[in-house]
Amino acid sequence: MINQEENYIPIAALNHYAYCPHRCGRMFCMGDFIDNQYTIEGTSLHERVHTVTQENREYTWQVRAIWLKSEKYGLIGKSDLIESEKGEFYPVEYKRGKKDDWNNDALQVCGQALCLEEMTGKKITTGYVYYAHSHQRQEVKIDKNLREKAIAIISAIQTMIATEKIPPPVYHPGCKGCSLYSHCLPQAIKKVKEYRE
Amino acid sequence: MGTIYITQEYNSFIGKSDERLTVKANKKTLLDIPLIKIDGLVIMGQATMSPDIIKELLDRKIPLSFVTATGKYRGCLQPELSKNILIRKAQWLAAGETEISIHLVKGFVRGKLKNYRHLLMRRRREYPELNLDAGINKLEQAILPIDLTNKIDSLRGLEGAGSAAYFGCFNQLIQNPNFKFKSRVRRPPTDPVNSLLSLGYSLLRHDVQSAVNIVGFDPYLGYLHYQRYGRPSLALDLMEEFRPLIVDAMVLNAINKNLLTPNEFNSEPISNAVSLTKEGLKIFLRLYEQKKQSKFKHPVLKRQCTYQEAFEIQARLMGKYLMQETDKYPPLILK
Ligand code: SF4
Questions:
Q1: What is d(CA B216, CA B73) in angstroms, rounded to the nearest whole number?
Q2: Which atom of ligand 1 lies nearest, measured to the CA of A181?
């Protein structure tokens, strides 16, 4: 589907697209990033996780911070943690904070699973999201539904990048916590329209 | 947070120690401030800079501009452009006589002239004895055809006519017998009022230029200022609407309230170029910073913001219009 290295989509883009397509476009078409408290904390958490290590805990084999890639879907990214037990592989994604309402983290895990399947030749049925704030692991079923959703988003992102057409911002509750709010001014479209000099 | 102005005339050395910016002169440390607190740097005198601090300013994208004592903007240190290629593409696609550039030029000119008009009307209310009617009428005659004018050169003409009408009234806005304004003189200004205006516009240019850079525009492609100055710059375009709101208002305030007196000005022999004394410059810079930090309600976004924030907001609104997210560019017009 895609053969040039630079055209691979970062796995994290799935998460951003599900949160807000405009945000995803700003980040991956326009290179718009901004550090706020959350992204900085998130990064330092990831820095810790992203030091390649490998360990055997009793029967679970773990490897941290390896590259994941799928030729079929044109995806690339770094995994936080891959575990293997009884010949099965499980991607584990680390997240700052609690489980959010958007359930986007599951999509990101699914993206990792798609890569891992292609890399190992094994079917991945389960993944996890680890929430640092609550020290909880949330199971993610990599089922047909989730896969279809992830694949549809991958193709939407590919189209967006190829056509350079970023979906316009749509003001929604998620805007409040969005680090790009001050760049995006999501209410401006409406306010500019209504404005009379 | 704030802009640092380096006004030391000779031998100042700007360096970096740890995460701090230091200014030294004659073996004394004049300033030692964490880089994280610095929004911008304007060098107005002579200064030597260490390679370290230049690298640090570029990395942190802290804008640095050079301004002469007589208020001429000389240039800036340009950090790497942001990756925002789509916005630059939209900016270039709109170049020339396009529907989009014509719309933007109308906005810049309308914004500036309407702000001029409001400034005059406010003065007329406060001082009914002034004879501002003719000026206001002429301004209105320049504003009225803007919407129906679709040639950029003609819009430039309206801008020129409106500005002439406004500066024709400017002397009446000065309520201090120690100061007079005849006409706008630049390069170099040869009277105190013009020298304050020039200096103010240069500081404004620094601030608007950095807003334009932050949003990711190509700073060299302007629409209104394209042919006329041979030096296209989007910052000059976006500056128009802010001139009366920020610089003219603070200059009039400084003069009318006697915050600056004729003692605060020097005049060069032969050239007659007028500039502020060191003490005067300090006063002026403080007033400018205060003005930038003062708050008002943004008429489009309908929320409180400072002028400092408004530079970036207007630049982002311009970006949104160029990317065709919004149906128009609303210049900042304050009543
Ligand atoms: S502010 Fe809202 S619309 Fe804009 S990018 Fe963020 S989430 Fe999307």
A1: 21
A2: 1
Residue A44 CB-density burial (10 A; 0-12 exposed, 13-18 middle, 19+ buried): exposed
- B83–A192 C-beta distance less than 8 A: no
- CA nearest ligand 1 atom 3, residue: A169
A164–B86 C-beta distance less than 8 A:
yes
- Contact of B280 with chain A, judged by CB distance below 8 Å, is answered with no
Q: Measure in Å the smallest separation between the Cα of A34 and chain B Cα atoms.
A: 11
Q: Tell me: ipTM over 0.90.
A: no
B82 touches chain A (CB under 8 A): yes
Pocket of ligand 1 contains residue A102 by CB under 6 Å: no
- CB-nearest to A30 from B86, B301, B327 is B86
Cα B320 to averaged position of ligand 1 atoms, centre (Å): 14
Task: Nearest chain B residue to A32 by CA: give it.
Answer: B84
Q: What are phi and psi of B178, to 5 degrees?
A: -80, -10
For residue B8 the two structure tokens come to 């030391």
Is there a contact between B325 and A30 if contact means CB atoms under 8 Å apart? Answer: no
Q: 10 Å Cβ neighbour count for B84?
A: 21
CA distance B31 to B33: 6
Q: How far apart are CA B79 and CA B110, in angstroms?
A: 32
Q: DSSP for A79-105?
A: -SEEEEETTEEEEEEEESSS--TT-HH
pLDDT by 10s per residue, chain B, length 335: 688 888 876 678 889 988 899 888 888 888 888 988 888 888 887 788 999 999 999 888 888 888 887 777 888 887 777 668 888 999 999 988 899 999 999 999 999 999 999 999 998 888 888 888 889 999 999 999 999 999 988 999 999 999 999 999 888 888 888 877 777 777 787 788 888 998 899 899 989 988 898 888 988 888 988 755 556 689 999 999 999 999 999 999 999 998 888 887 776 667 677 677 788 888 899 899 999 989 999 999 999 999 989 999 999 999 999 999 899 999 999 98
Contact A74, A158 (CB under 8 A): yes
CA distances A118 to A108, A111, B164, Å, are 16, 11, 71
